[in-house]
Amino acid sequence: MAKLLITGASGLLGLNLAVEAARAGHAVTGITGRRRVAWPGVDMQSVDLLDAAARAEIWQHARPEWIVHCAALADLDACEKDPARAQAMNADLPGALAAEAAAHGARFIHISTDAVFDGERGDYTEEDAPNPLSVYAQSKLAGEQAVAAANPAASIARVNLFGWSMSGSRSLGEFFVNGLRAGAPLKGFTDVFFCPLLVNDIAGVLFDMLDRDLHGLYHVVSRDSMSKYAFGVRIAELFGHDPAAIAPISVNDAGLAARRSPLLTLKTDKLAAALGRPLPDLPSALARFHALDQQGYPAQLRAAARD
Ligand SMILES: NC(=O)c1ccc[n+]([C@@H]2O[C@H](COP(=O)([O-])OP(=O)(O)OC[C@H]3O[C@@H](n4cnc5c(N)ncnc54)[C@H](OP(=O)(O)O)[C@@H]3O)[C@@H](O)[C@H]2O)c1
């Protein structure tokens, strides 16, 4: 058991990490931004992390041994509209927190993204040179560099993820489930490949990384990949809907403001070797996503909102 601080605890990844950490018996402080959240066994605090004085108070209050930094400006289109805020949230803040963690002797994992790659080639290792295409991805790469410079003992976890969120509409998995249930016309990209992990599975991997005191850059994604269209079709099958409700389309025809990367497949060999076990696979993650729904987990998350 550890004293664990999780930022972004109202977000898709951070809230699920807080839930899993509390279940695993850790003493958890969750930092939310504007949204207020309540979850049994988690000390939830609403703090503007860009305020250095407020961060100092949190260090004193929580005295964490481990930190997982999930808070970010993670909306691609919001980053395109406000690059200065993207820089502050995704680059400057991680560097400052990583330095503070080093000063307090706490183990630190910074959450980054597969989108640091341009997705032209695929099968990227941690040794491959990034080439971020969007403002979001550029700011996240700058965040990785700031963390590594401020705290060489920190870990940087490049993730891609899906799962159930407090808003009920944050992840691609929820997009497909909500749309299928509403009978809405849906589209899935046949030419964008990714390897997302279920947020609940990411928790176990990150806590294992902290326990083993791993340092440096790791790909924390599923060990296999799918197109976003195939991902939607599998969800339709699992949730008992007609997969024909999802039309296969090219990302180039979607009219998106921020450029997306087509082949975001990442190798996980480095982390598998460090942990002594393979990363989870996508079919199992999708099955657990469905099982959590059957257990009423999405409604529990929605009920955690206090605004
Ligand atoms: N979602 C994905 O598909 C994906 C893919 C790859 C990587 N990632 C990375 O994974 C991490 C988590 O992403 P996510 O999707 O879980 O994010 P999210 O759902 O958008 O949540 C963002 C979190 O950051 C908090 N936050 C924003 N500004 C803040 C501030 N000034 N002070 C304190 N908290 C602040 C938000 O708090 P409030 O909402 O309460 O204000 C929220 O808890 C990010 O680093 C992201 O880059 C995400």
Structure description:
The chain is an alpha/beta fold and 307 residues long. It has a domain at 3-168 and 195-224 and 265-282: Rossmann fold (3-Layer(aba) Sandwich), CATH 3.40.50. The protein contains eleven helices and 14 strands. The strands form four sheets. A seven-stranded parallel beta sheet has the order 3-2-1-4-5-6-11, with helices on both faces. Helix 5 (135-150) links the parallel strand 5 and strand 6 (155-159). Helix 4 (83-104) runs parallel beside helix 5 and helix 6 packs across helix 8 (228-238). The longest helix has 22 residues, at 83-104. The protein binds NADP nicotinamide-adenine-dinucleotide phosphate (NAP). NADP nicotinamide-adenine-dinucleotide phosphate (NAP) binds at residues 8-14, 32-35, 47-50, 70-72, 74, 89, 111, 113, 140, 159-161, 170. Residues 8-14, 32-35, 47-50, 70-72, 74, 89, 111, 113, 140, 159-161, 170 line the site of NADP nicotinamide-adenine-dinucleotide phosphate.
